[in-house]
Backbone:
């Protein structure tokens, strides 16, 4: 496998407080592309064994989301404690809590996270799959499948890859 090396230089003159956030974003973007290339290598049985439970899915999302460490979206603090729900984190300064799915493409997703990740897998392997086919295979409403697929396709159009952590 060929590797492409990209060096990014930042000029933070007068904006030192923003530097850690931008560096974390650039690193996260690189890891997300690598992650999606790894997911594409899995076959359906491997994927289903890895992501068969809600716990395994949330663990995967939280590991990806906070792979470079937790940074509070409200105050920028990096210290945290365990939140009220599983795999959520609470800022020790401002006490705001953030779930693993908050500010990701799974934010306010009303279908089980296992099915949402399976839909990501299916779209990743066949971006041309229709929302009707997704609906038939997942036994969900077509409009539900269309909404999540449109988020996934927006990620592909804007970044070239499906970015699990992308949220505008």
Residues:
């Amino acid at each position: 496998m060929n590797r492409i090396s990209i060096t990014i230089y930042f000029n933070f003159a007068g904006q030192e407080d923003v530097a850690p956030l931008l560096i974390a974003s650039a690193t996260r973007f690189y890891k997300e592309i690598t992650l999606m290339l790894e997911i594409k290598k899995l076959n359906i049985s491997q994927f289903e064994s890895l992501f068969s439970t809600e716990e395994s899915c949330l663990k995967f999302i939280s590991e990806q989301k906070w792979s470079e460490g937790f940074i509070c979206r409200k105050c920028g603090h990096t210290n945290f404690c365990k939140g009220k729900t599983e795999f959520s984190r609470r800022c020790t300064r401002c006490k705001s809590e953030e779930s693993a799915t908050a500010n990701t493409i799974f934010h306010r997703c009303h279908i089980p996270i296992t099915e949402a990740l399976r839909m990501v897998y299916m779209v990743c392997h066949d971006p041309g799959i229709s929302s009707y086919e997704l609906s038939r295979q997942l036994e969900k409403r077509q409009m539900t499948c269309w909404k999540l697929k449109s988020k996934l396709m927006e990620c592909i159009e804007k970044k070239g890859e499906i970015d699990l952590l992308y949220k505008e």
Summary: The beta strands are 80-82, 89-91, 97-98.
